[in-house]
Amino acid sequence: MLRLRPFRLETFKVFCRHASKTGGGKPVDSNALAQLEEGYKKLAASDSKSLLKKHLKKDIFDNLKKKTTPSFNSSLLDCIQSGLCNHDSGVGIYAPDAEAYKTFADIFDPIIEDYHKGFKKTDKHPESCFGQGKDFANLDPNNKYIVSTRVRCGRSVKNFPFNPCLSEFEYAELECMISGALNTMSGQYKGGYLPLCGMEKSVQQKLIDEHFLFKEGDRFLETAGASRFWPIGRGIYFNEARNFLVWVNEEDHIRIISMEKGGDLGKVYDRMIGGVEALGKYLQFSRDQRLGYLTFCPTNLGTTIRASVHIKLPNLTANPEEMKKLSTKYNLQVRGTSGEHTEAKGGVHDISNKRRMGLTEYEAVKEMYDGIRALIDAENKECK
Q1: Any idea which residues carry the catalytic annotation?
Q2: pLDDT in tens, 194-228
């Protein structure tokens, strides 16, 4: 039987008082400045196609390089170190704490606008509207193309910074809070929490192989500071049916995931909505009036929704121009079987909505639904 540590409210209050008094705006030390200057020169001279390189012009770099966030003293180096180290990054920037989005807005805003297809710095993300899953019929009732369907969203817990600024103690406190909330879940969500600390390697690898558990070693996240104190504070929650998961302190504080075999998007989506609402009764989530729900990576801001399918499209795979055309039209992201920076094993692609900002949760899922339906229609035409 799993034993969950109790949520210690008084300890959390002490932390919040400490965080609110933390001094900010301290000068960036000379070593960090030297690292920044050297890293920027190498990035500028590289053939990187990252959004960081595209938008970090010299005048913006010079304006931001000595700034720090008020509460946690995060610097520009904390934001862009991953992109400076990995020139093959698609984006190349992360927010070490929520304030970074405002302190370093001169670089975050253009990247956000570029990635989220026109979400300008004057735009405001709409209020949440999940709608209902019943509006989305099964995309593949004959199980011809879709292997599985997954819908997830990310959440950050209010008053806590993101991974690079979390102390070892704060990781443990967050885990305690989140696992305590998870332990209240009932009905189809009832299950158990497994911390990574103490988990046998064989069990861990089996969960990774089954596409349930995240893994350590992503160089983009590591160089962004997201793997500090690993595996402390990390874990996974399963419901009994293993079609509802929650990742704790992987990239974001919380990843809420609903999934199952086949193409019944509506059913999967409804399950995720119920999970978010259940956790929201016990945890306060970080939300910005302009940017929506706040996350470590700017690609996940706003709704934070990622609705995806593992899908086999052999004819379109052989016609990449047509697949790219349709993916662009419907704002879809096409990745390898195991996600970003992986290959499509056995011709199985991971395809999801790309836009998460400037539209509601319902609209984000509908965009993916319409796009997958169009891809399947095109696949069928290619067969004829």
Answers
A1: 152, 251, 255, 297, 299, 306, 335, 340
A2: 999 988 888 888 888 887 888 887 899 999 999 99
